[in-house]
Design brief:
This protein is mainly α. The chain has a three-stranded antiparallel sheet, with helices on one face. Strand 1 and strand 2 form a beta hairpin.
């Protein structure tokens, strides 16, 4: 309710940081693909409408409807696999005709942040019992599994990391963490070794190609590393100050089209080539500032669920930014994740906007600064 809000707590700084990052993102998208600028500008306008609207909606009221939201999420994820648009072997999008496409998994991230925050608060007294953790794992496995069969491994990993951060902050003991790592690390090692074997029959081909491209890029350029190697070349060629956003005097990786769809998953290669190391550091600093402000609001939340929602959104921006930049610089295998508020894409922009709106609402109901 509005009377419960501490209006001095409205995070104008967070809103301004997002505005600056969106403005820079729009410029970089224009430099990469000018034909997308109108849709992106419309998306940015909708983004701020969504942030302002969601920021005034009581997150406690939203949590009262978390089970219907969870159910709707499952139905939509199943529907996109059955009726969605296939792009390069992946079925992740609904085709909306002249309005473009929408990717439900981007909104699943937010719904699962809300769901896990609600679940952890309901089970804060028995969170470390295996029965409780098993129940949470089962509930999360259903939507994550549906996303995985869309051949969207990157989003599945991203969501798992976010969930892990929420339950850790929610009170998961180090004993349980070490036990889980003792299971996950050997399984992960076995997964990679199997992918590198001559006939990996248990892993889909697209996963095998990405792992092999990462482990040995010079021998597997045609299957994925080609994009990453050219992205590194683009970033390195920008040196300190870059070649200029709209300069035609220098040859660029962008003009040679050596990185396809550069306006989305590899947007940081445009940032590096056009504005150099300085531009990359500005973008990374703005993303870090968003994460830190979300954490600051989490610390002042009025209850556990508010703290965990803000923590989940901070984790989303932190992990997704790291994974996006890690892929573009070949620190990580080639996976498709947008850079929040910078990459082109309405679904990512709207999902991120809802997350920021929720965090601002947590701040409005938190302790007075």
């Amino acid at each position: 309710m509005l009377k419960q809000y501490h209006w001095k707590n409205y995070s104008i700084k967070l809103l301004l940081t997002v505005m600056i990052l969106c403005s820079l993102g729009t410029m970089f998208i224009y430099a990469a693909k000018p034909e997308f600028i109108k849709k992106q500008l419309l998306g940015v306008i909708l983004c701020f409408i969504v942030i302002l609207t969601v920021s005034f909606i009581d997150y406690g009221m939203i949590l009262k409807f978390i089970w219907p939201l969870y159910g709707i999420n499952i139905v939509i994820l199943a529907a996109v696999k059955l009726f969605g648009k296939d792009v390069n072997g992946s079925t992740r999008w609904f085709d909306l005709g002249p309005f473009g496409t929408i990717q439900p998994s981007e909104f699943s991230k937010i719904i699962l942040i809300l769901f896990v925050a609600y679940f952890v608060e309901c089970h804060k007294d028995d969170l470390n019992e295996w029965k409780t953790l098993g129940k949470l794992a089962l509930f999360c496995a259903i939507p994550i599994g549906l996303i995985l069969i869309e051949t969207d491994l990157s989003t599945s990993i991203d969501i798992c990391l976010i969930i892990g951060a929420i339950i850790f902050i929610g009170g998961l003991s180090w004993k349980r963490i070490l036990t889980l790592l003792g299971v996950v690390i050997p399984l992960g090692t076995g997964f990679v070794l199997h992918a590198m074997s001559p006939n990996p029959i248990l892993i889909p081909n697209y996963m095998v190609n990405r792992i092999r491209s990462f482990m040995d890029p010079t021998q597997n350029q045609s299957s994925g590393a080609y994009q990453q190697l050219n992205s590194i070349m683009a970033i390195g060629s920008g040196q300190l100050k870059g070649k200029g956003l709209f300069s035609d005097s220098l040859a660029t990786v962008k003009d040679a089209k050596l990185v396809s769809e550069q306006q989305t998953d590899f947007i940081i290669s445009i940032v590096g080539e056009m504005t150099g190391f300085i531009g990359c550091m500005i973008v990374i600093a703005l993303l870090a500032l968003i994460v830190l402000q979300c954490i600051g609001i989490a610390k002042k939340a009025k209850d556990t669920s508010g703290m965990l929602i803000a923590t989940g959104v901070a984790s989303l921006f932190c992990f997704q930014s790291f994974m996006n930049i890690g892929v573009a610089t070949q620190i990580l295998p080639n996976t498709g994740l947008p850079l929040p508020f910078v990459s082109y894409g309405l679904s990512s922009l709207m999902g991120s906007a809802i997350g920021i709106g929720l965090v601002i609402n947590v701040g409005l109901q938190g302790r007075r600064y």
